[in-house]
Amino acid sequence: MKNTYLKRTICTALAGLMMAMTACGNVTEEKESPASKKSEPDTSFSAAEPDNGDKPAESEISLTVKPLSSVTPEKSDEMPDDDFNASYRNYAAEFFKTACAEDIKAGNNVMISPESVMMALGMTANGAKGETLSEMEKALGGQGIDTVNKAMQYRMTKFMNSEDITFNVANSVWVRDDADRIKMKQSFCDKVKSVYNADSFLAPFDDTTCNDINGWVNNNTNGMIPNILDEIPYDAVAYLVNAMAFEGEWASPYAEHQVNEDQTFTNSNGEEEKVTMLYSEEGGYFEDENTTGFLKYYKGYDYAFMAMLPAEGTDMVDYVAGLDGEKLKNLWQTSGGKVNACIPEFTYDYGKELSDDLKAMGMTMPFGDGADFSEMAETGTGSLYIDKVIHKTHIELDRNGTKAAAATVVEMVDEACIEIEDPKEVYLNRPFVYAIIDTESGTPVFMGAVNTVNG
């Protein structure tokens, strides 16, 4: 095997689960399962259904739910402008660095979905006012909530209408069925339904609701994230949830002779691991002063795996600390030319509670009793704030393609082009960073880092 390595930071933005609170009055009671709805988007968000063999069995609902909005979700064909794409890349890089730094230093594999977290927090921000809203907007890249709404509406429409890959995106809001503690505003329920196609439900917030939310996440991640909640605490009054599932086959599949077992990957501790390597010639080579990497496209060429290999001798922690939106943009825009490449097959799960990370990004007020979410709901105590933001992801990469999923839950509580020489080589046989990017805008949907393949 040749001694060259790929320097590519994998950003996995898996669009995440958010917990939402919604308790509106005067709603018609009907038997319906949020878990079995499979986020059936309106025709505005129609997606190619994956093969039934790939779907988990849909969970049976265990409670009577009360839908809180019947508005029709809108679709958008207005692509976000360059300012939004730039702010999104900056947000994605900052979020990746902040949330994953400790695990990367410890030599662990990581993956986050900036997309999932933005959708979950974007829904939540529609219920915020004043300084609470301002801090959330700043943490999400500095764009106003109306701009975020329009961009998420466009991206959701695009994801769900992908023809050559399967990309499911679903949002929901779950509210404690106790009008003395929380009453959701109809305007909020209608807003998140219109923009995010988020169904809102009243639920008893007991063990059955916990199972229902987990079943909804399991269904909408195609079984890749079987659960997101362990229990529902007494003080929780709403959950805003996002779930995403990406399944893409390679545009250029690997032939049998390109799949080689018993190859060597040197992990972050300097130990050699035996792995299955996928060898190929790719046409999306890029480099800068401390990175070599490449793009490998999925069918349809709307999405690509972006591999970033730090320069030999570069510490992974230092490399990730130097990532920003401009670097991601330049690597994407300058890709071109042929490269001999290899990628190890790998699969892993990642999860983390994001409260401290979001506070470090300047979002402090939404987590305290001084938060103003009065556009979302009225509470008996007059206090409503974010307690937790739970994020989980999953990725499988092999000779056929990639499967990735993300879920984000927001828990709300009350007071109770360069010159390319021939040919280049980027072999991912040591720790690297990666991203699954939207090739229209160069923005990462998922970002991750591989420190070990067998660990």
From TrEMBL:
Superkingdom, natural source: Bacteria
Basic and acidic residues: compositionally biased ranges: 28-41
Gene3D superfamilies named among the record's database cross-references: Alpha-1-antitrypsin, domain 1, Antithrombin, subunit I, domain 2
Annotated segments matching region Disordered: 28-61
Keyword Ion transport: no
A cellular component annotation (GO) from this entry: extracellular space
Similarity comment: family membership: Belongs to the serpin family.
Stated name of the protein: Serpin B
Species name: Ruminococcus albus
